[in-house]
Amino acid sequence: MALRTHALDFWMARGSVVVVAALQLLLVNDFSWGPRWLAPLVELLLLAPLSVATAWVQTQASQATTEAHFHLVSRSRRLIRRAALALTVLITVMNFVALYFLVQALLGGHAGSAQTLLIDAVNVWVTNVIAFTLWFWSIDRGGPASRGLSSKPYGDFLFPQMSIPDEHFKDWSPGFIDYLYLSFTNATAFSPTDTMPLSPRAKLLMIAESGLSLLTIALVAARAVNILA
Q1: How many angstroms separate the first and last alpha carbons of the chain?
Q2: 84, 141, 196, 203: which could form a disulfide with 147 (CB 3.0–4.6 Å)?
Q3: Residue 143 — φ and ψ, nearest 5°?
Q4: Cβ atoms of 125 and 216 closer than 8 Å
Q5: What b-and-e string marks burial along 31-45, b requiring 16 or more CB atoms within 10 Å of the CB?
Q6: Is the distance from CB of 176 to CB of 13 less than 8 angstroms?
Q7: Within 109-175, where are the H helices?
């Protein structure tokens, strides 16, 4: 069950990239770097071979019987992880650019209507949550492919299930939904809730997400609400 669950996580992550591309195209105001369609197109072009490679590796992993075969699968997973991290960097940078232009338009008085600002603020905020979900999911315990096989008692994050002295959670490892929940609660509470960051990089990522979320909500959404009032 655990193997099937984590195999499904890969496709949930790939699907979240499609959601991000759609959100970028749905921005009412043009806050993109270059043509509006450029970033979504590049993301989808990177996603296509990444998805094919993911399917191939999952098939090879289920059929692997020799040490050489397992070594090939392990090496392929490392390459896929690097490509996925590059895609995550692209999504994060483009969302930061969108937020920058949105704030610049507000401060310069060139922003659109209050309604469109609210829509774009929500768009940028949701994209931010997805981007950091991908970050958390990609870095914890060496990435999703090796997370369930890690012998370390803790990784970059301490989930509550890891502290429960119950046989049911003995072999538990977090999945994509757990990282989505972590990202969502961090973006809304601006601080850890039930899951604690343990490593410096996890803390820095949570600081970055909280800061961007606070900027989006406090400066952009609040300004638009004031215009509506």
Answers
A1: 52
A2: 141
A3: 105, 165
A4: yes
A5: bbeeeeeebbeebee
A6: yes
A7: 114-139, 144-147
SS3 157: strand
Q: What is the tens place of the pLDDT at every residue in 19-73?
A: 999 999 988 887 777 788 888 999 999 999 888 887 777 777 666 677 776 677 7
Residue 52: CB partners within 8 Å, gap ≥ 6? none
- Domain range annotation of the chain: 2-228
pLDDT tens profile 156-206: 898 888 777 777 767 678 889 999 999 999 999 888 888 899 999 999 999
Please report where in the chains the tokens 């820095």 appear, as a residue: 204
Q: What is the DSSP string of 23-89?
A: HHHT-SS--SSSSTTHHHHHHHHHHHHHHHHHHHHHHHHHH--SHHHHHHHHHHHHHHHHHHHHHHH
Furthest C-alpha separation in the chain: 68
3-state helix, strand, coil in the chain (%, to 5): 75, 0, 20
CA of residue 216 relative to chain centroid, distance? 17
Instruction: Give 101's contacts (C-beta < 8 A, 6+ positions apart).
Output: 31, 32
Alpha-carbon span 174 to 17, nearest angstrom: 20
Residues 217 and 184: their CA atoms lie apart, in Å, by 14
pTM: 0.86
Residue 32 in contact with residue 102, Cβ under 8 Å?
Answer: no
